[in-house]
Amino acid sequence: MFEATSISYRYSTGRPWIFQDVSVTAEAGQVLAVLGPNARGKTTMLKCLSGLLRPVSGSVTMSGSVGYVPQSHSVAFSFSVLDIVLMGRARKVRIYSAPSSKDRHAAEQALIRVGAGHLAQREYTGLSGGERQLVLIARALVSECDTIVLDEPASALDLRNQAGVLTALRALADDGMCVVMTTHHPDHALHIAERSMLMVSSVDQRIGATQELLTGELLTEMYGVPIVTSDVDTPSAVRRLAVPDFGKGVSACEFSRR
Question: How far is CA 161 from CA 53, 147, 157, 181, 194, in A?
């Protein structure tokens, strides 16, 4: 669905490069996960891939349209959930026109698709974090996008809500959509992503099959704490998990010098 070729980005001339010479592709029916420590450029990478930022060099070729889901979202007024999703139809509605019954039906179907149809008449400001994420995903879907790009879609969510969001994203990929997301949780990538990108440094990005790329050794190198991976029997299947050893982590001052 898109191909990035040798893209580099920095915010202005003379400032450090956020990343350099990155080439990556994403395909329909797949999940691509982008991982890396804080301030390593994951959000900037997403914005370049989705067209919100133009790379300083290199190119991004996109097939189809893109829906973008930010890490956080707030509203000034207490809109209903259905109205929030309807906002995703903006480019389908002619100027000075109101959403049609077709648009409202599309919004309702998008909510149902992510398992949030029962929230349609709720006030958006009264939802939990996980419920809001599902609504924002529905808002992107109702734009009829071919690729959905999400910045930390499961951040700050409890385990149940993490499961709900990840299940919805995996279902979208299984339906043929291209899904690109950032995450701080290697387990999330191991659970739903066929491919991953590890942003180790501004000049070191490693891309490959998730199960092969996300090794304990490489995760330890990237995050600066000991991490082991292990296959675990769960009620649904055997899953590979990444387990950090927080007891042997580095101090904040030591980490800041890395």
Answer: 30, 22, 6, 16, 22
Backbone angles phi, psi at 151, to 5 degrees: -100, 110
**Per-domain boundaries in the chain:** 1-64+146-213, 72-144
HSE-up (13 A, CA, CB side) for residue 196: 26
Q: Using the 8-state DSSP alphabet, how is residue 144 labeled?
A: T
SS3 238: strand
- For residue range 136-177, what is the model confidence (pLDDT) as tens digits? 999 999 999 999 999 999 887 888 888 988 999 999 999 999
The alpha carbon of residue 191 and the mean position of all alpha carbons in its chain are separated, in whole angstroms, by 14
Whether CATH 3.40.50.300 fits 1-64+146-213: yes
Structure token digits, residue 135: 């609504």
Classified as helix, coil or strand, 177 is: coil
